[in-house]
Amino acid sequence: MRLLTSLLFLCSCSAAVLPVERPLILEAPAGAWTDILASIGVRPGSPAGLHRLQILVGAGDEVVATPEKITVRRIIDARRPGLEIYWDQPVEIARFELPPQATVFANERWTGAPVLAGWKDGDSAVLWTATDPGPKGFERYPYLPQALADLGIQPPARGTHLWAFFDSSYRLRTDMDVMARRWRTAGIAAIHVAAWHYWESDAQRDDYLKRLIETCHRHAILVYAWIELPHVSEQFWHDHPQWREKTGLLGDAHLDWRKLMNLQNADCARTVRTGVESLAGRFDWDGINLGELYFESLEGYSNPARFTPFNDDVRREFQARAGFDPVELFSTRANDAAPMRKFLNFRAELARRMQEEWLDVLSAIRRQSPGLDLVLTHIDDRFDTQIRDLLGADASKVLPLLDKHDFTFLVEDPATVWHLGPQRYPEIAKRYAALTPKRDRLAIDINIVERYQDVYPTKQQTGVELFQLVNLATRAFERVALYFENSILAPDVPLLAAAAAGPAKIIQRDGVLTVESDRDFLVAWKGPALVDGKPWPCYDGQFVRVPAGTHRIEKGPEVFQILDLNGTLIGAEATDEGVSIEYESRGRAIVRTREGIRMLPAGRHRIHFAAATS
Amino acid sequence: MEQAASKFNEGLRERPDHPSARKDLAYTLLRLGETEAARDQFGLVAKSDSADWASALEYGFLCHETQQRAEARRMFDHVRSNGDGEARATAEKAFLSVDGQLESGIKQWLEAARKRPEADSVHEELARLAEERDELELAETHYAEAFRLKPTKRHFLLNLASVRERLGKALEANAAWLAASRSPDVRTSERARERMPAGEPSPEVVRMAERYAMVRTAAVRKGDLSAIDMADRSFQLGYLQDALRYYEVAQEADPANAHAQLRLGWTNNLLGDDRAAYRWFAQARTAPDKAIAKEASKAWRNLRETQAALRPTLWILPMYSTRWQSAFAYGQVKVEFRAGRLPFKPYLSLRFAGDTGAPQTPLPLSERSITPAAGVVTKPWRRMSLWAEAGGNIGNTQGPDARAGLTHAKGFGHLLGSETPGSFFLTESGVNYASRFGNNVMFGSQNRVGYTLGRIQAGWLFGASTDTQHEYWANFIEFGPSLRARLPRLPDNLLLSVELVRGRNFFNTSNPRKADYWDLRLGLLYALTY
After folding, report:
1. What's the CA gap between A604 and A583, in Å, rounded?
2. In Å, what is the CA distance from B179 to each residue of A239, A407, A482, A597, B167?
């Protein structure tokens, strides 16, 4: 057996009284194992479902290396056999023989040789891998956390504040209750619904959306209208060909799925504004997300077939300023950098102006609907500095708008840096923190999609990589959004909330949990509890919700239950008269008890629930 | 609902031909949001019952929802041509919608390709739409053009192969699969392997596949931005995996590209693959560009110690000592063997020591013999190495013996060969054991401090030595001026050494001379490592 380095060992194991479990002892060789576990909030010394976890790499006590050699380039994971998992650097290994009690989780593609397996023995388990997992932990076996969960690992904490984008065209026949329950279990607090499908009033579609919003609220999930101007709607594009945006080749700007309109045209802008007001008024939204309001494309001016805006209004305005038609940038002025620079600067200023104008429109709508939260989704141009020239997006010009408007600035990491791995999020956070004192208004949007770069082991983030992304992003930002709920692969859903728990520390001693975090979160705890010595109402039987700070949790009496809260929990109290909770929320909040849900006003409030109602 | 899906699955394992159970499973999966799984189940139902137009339509719509537009279009086309009343009408509407979007997209991108024929992404977009609309010749043309424009994007070969296969162009398709399977990018090569026909490709296919490599060569030579520029940019930004791939493409396209060879060396070295790095440096050191050759040679020599299978070294030191009134000659030929990840390397050695015949020269100073030996030496750690050897003796009658030692050498400041003048400090120490001399263990240290001026180093020497047997010749301290120089017009590995020392032996039991001594030593060291 290989020499094992024990990373962190047991505390005293005196607390065997339920619901407290024995803390986890991890025996693992050097490598990224602690990072892999940390991505789902599991740390040695904390309760995690198993008492002892041994990681075995290569040959060991019960694993025999045969003389046969195989080269691993691709593996097949049994939990998702269709997923293409490639190793960037092929590795030659022996073919291993496993003990009969082993469950094989993944095999080499061509020989079927096992590469990932595990076996259990009471409250101990062995996870075996044919090679080390790679320096970052996700280079070879994406579904290590899921394999650990199969072996009995249970993350001790969950986050509850994720946002997720939602496009109903992928989910029209999915049962809404199933969907909403799954979202909430995954830690999703709000969905941002692709609202362009509902731009024009239509009885059937409107009914669907109203039912969706009701269902989400019932599961304590907020619903935002996500608009993608200058794309308005399919119908709008067909009805108003005269207002279509143009590319550098003067073709209609139908780029990928988006059909862009000319918002510089006063008539078009007026009609779109009426549409936004109608959309906001027809449904019980909790917020509006103004997404990606700038120009195309990520290829910049090197591909004029995708380069916007070249509508008549923009060309006229630029010509009046610069003295030439910007179309000449791709003909007579193609080889001159100075005119293009002039246009790129003009274009960035135009994008900022649009963003300000449309934030004004949304703020006016909010005045009619207090409690409506506003979000501006804006691609990062600090980490990838080409973005200003590619899309016209300039965060440094938009962030000062936070002084005038109250909104969340949701940073979208650009496709150009998707391949850089999870560590980019703390770095992005640092760069934006330098731009605004309102750091609590900054949020990050993680794109979970197939990346165009040559990335490994999977094209789309899944398993360890996804959990590391979510975990690190949660630590770096107040709010994390996922694009989009339908692209999250099924094996990832059960562990997503654990990854979103943030920097929670959980220490167990003598039947008592001491928990510490800079934000509120759910800690695994069976039954009612005392928190800091007082009866605690925020529990659902499996988890206890605790506010930010350091708290002590121990067994407690049953009291009126606050089953769920969509908002930040500040404090809670249970007395003979009933229970009260203090919360804070940018928009409306939702509280769920056994009697149903209650919509709560935005801001910081204390709410009382009389004992008689329990 | 999850339980229902699980029960349906169980039942279908028993009776996979049960269409209504499969359909119920498909609808359950739909309600659970498992759209892809539901699509596949409807696909199976539609396949097993060609008259089930409702399932065929469901399959079509779900293909569309899951981004399989081409399959959706085909299914709608099939149902609108063959289905019954209501299904036919629904399929007709769906087909026209999907087909209309593809048609207008193709028109838009054809126009863009006419205006910007040099943009690979325009050809790619057009080819994809054409492929989805089953306009395979159009798709083939534009995938081929996209690949010609951007040969670093080898996944175009997969698209090309797939389209050609559907066109019935088996030879051309197999050639594209084969070329893609040789891609350094694992994803492309593995995807190609999945689709390639079994068995050895025919010579014709191999010849055709090689043409794709020629396309890449032509593009890189023409100065296409791609490979070498992308590689340099990636290297500078620290994206080493990307840099590696691009340099490999550039090198494959132009095998004589010494810059790519050198950078392949550095990239592999930085990625920890010294074996590959050593190979690339070896190629680059023969480059006609002197700067590249020099840099590569230096890097190659640095890696040689760990990478070469055999590492021969030779050193010779003739010298004269006024104290012993004799000339001495020492030398060694040694061959070290690479030992993979072992912490030590085995070696074979042939040592020589002789003198001009001073009668009172102690034996350890001149064994007057040739000593063959086999031994091991550890890889340096903090400039220390342990060594041990056993061997025989030719030239005297001492017989076999064993020796071992620990050596340490470290220099500070401007050592010999420094580009700028300045002061230096050099310390060289060792502990040596020899069974032949009564299992004696000797410790010695020589330290030099002084000033280096180009090829000359002048300074002060301080030496000390002691041993466990209290031999007079092994127990002394000495100090004095020292001069070392690389002689003009002679190779750098030839070193002249002149030392004048004042010393004192502090055990003198069998010392035939006075305890205090002066010694002027002149030596010429020649060392060579290959």
Report:
1. 6
2. 48, 52, 38, 61, 19
Q: Does B190 touch chain A (CB under 8 A)?
A: yes
What distance in Å separates the CA atoms of residue A40 and residue A46, rounded to the nearest whole number? Answer: 13
Q: Which of A55-59, B200-204, B397-401 has the lowest mean pLDDT?
A: B397-401
Query: When comparing pLDDT for A161 and B198, which is higher?
Result: A161
| Residue B405, burial from CB neighbour count under 10 angstroms (0-12, 13-18, 19+) | middle
Distance of CA A13 to the CA centre of its chain: 37
On the question of pLDDT at A17 being above 50, the answer is no
Q: What is the mean pLDDT of residues A165-189?
A: 95
Pairing, β A512-517 against β A124-129: unpaired
Alpha helices in A283-418 (DSSP H): 312-322, 337-368, 387-391, 395-398
Question: Given CB atoms, is B1 within the 8 Å cutoff of chain A?
Answer: yes
Quote the ipTM score.
0.86
Q: Residues A275-302: what's their mean pLDDT?
A: 95
d(CA B390, CA B373): 5
Q: Are A371 and A601 in contact (CB under 8 A)?
A: yes
Q: Report the alpha-carbon distance of residue A613 to residue B24 in Å, rounded.
A: 43
What DSSP element (H or E) covers A564? strand A564-566
Q: Which of B29, B142, B187 would you mutate first to test chain A, the one with the most A CBs within 10 A?
A: B187
Mutant choice from A175, A424, A458 vs B, greatest count of B C-beta within 10 A: A175
How many other C-beta atoms lie within 10 A of the C-beta of residue B11?
Answer: 15
Determine the Cα–Cα distance for residues A224 and A162; give it in Å rounded to an integer: 13
* pLDDT greater than 80 at residue B340: no
Confidence of residue A417 (pLDDT cuts 50, 70, 90): confident
How many Å apart are CA A70 and CA B444, to the nearest integer?
52
B112 neighbourhood in chain A, CB within 8 Å:
249, 251, 305
CA distance A120 to A127: 9
In this structure, of A7-16, B210-219, B372-381, the range with the lowest mean pLDDT score is: A7-16
CB contact under 8 A, A303 and B35: no
Percent of chain A with pLDDT over 90: 83
pLDDT of residue A96: 97
pLDDT digits (tens, 9 = 90+) for A336-381: 889 999 999 999 999 999 999 999 999 999 999 989 999 999 999 9
- Burial of residue A308 (CB within 10 Å: 0-12, 13-18, 19+) is buried
* Distances, alpha carbon B439 to alpha carbons B360, B404, B444, in Å: 22, 11, 16
Residue B79 phi/psi, 5-degree rounding, is: -70, -40
Distance CA(A582)–CA(A572), nearest Å, equals 6
- Going across the sheet that includes A596-600, the strands are A564-566, A589-593, A596-600
The structure tokens listed for A30 are: 């050097």
Residue B511 is encoded by which pair of tokens? Answer: 């010392």
Q: What is the pLDDT of residue B214?
A: 54
Q: Are B376 and B387 in contact (CB under 8 A)?
A: yes
Interface of B with A in 313-342 (CB under 8 A): none
- CB within 8 Å of A533: residues ≥ 6 apart: A552
CB half-sphere exposure, B314, CA atoms < 13 A: 5
Chain mean position to CA A402: 23
Alpha-carbon separation of residue B195 from A75, A581, B178, B475 (angstroms): 17, 61, 10, 77
Burial A185-221 (b: 16+ CB within 10 A, else e): ebbbbbbbbbbbbbbbeeeeeeebbeebbebbbbbbb
The size of chain B, in residues, is: 530
Number of Cβ within 10 Å of residue A570's Cβ equals 16
User: DSSP states of B377-433 as a string?
Assistant: EEPPBTTEEEEEEEE--BSSS---EEEEEEEEEEEEES-TT-SS-EEEEEEEEEEEE
Q: Which residues contact B444 (CB under 8 A, 6 or more apart)?
A: B429, B430, B432, B463, B464, B465, B466, B474
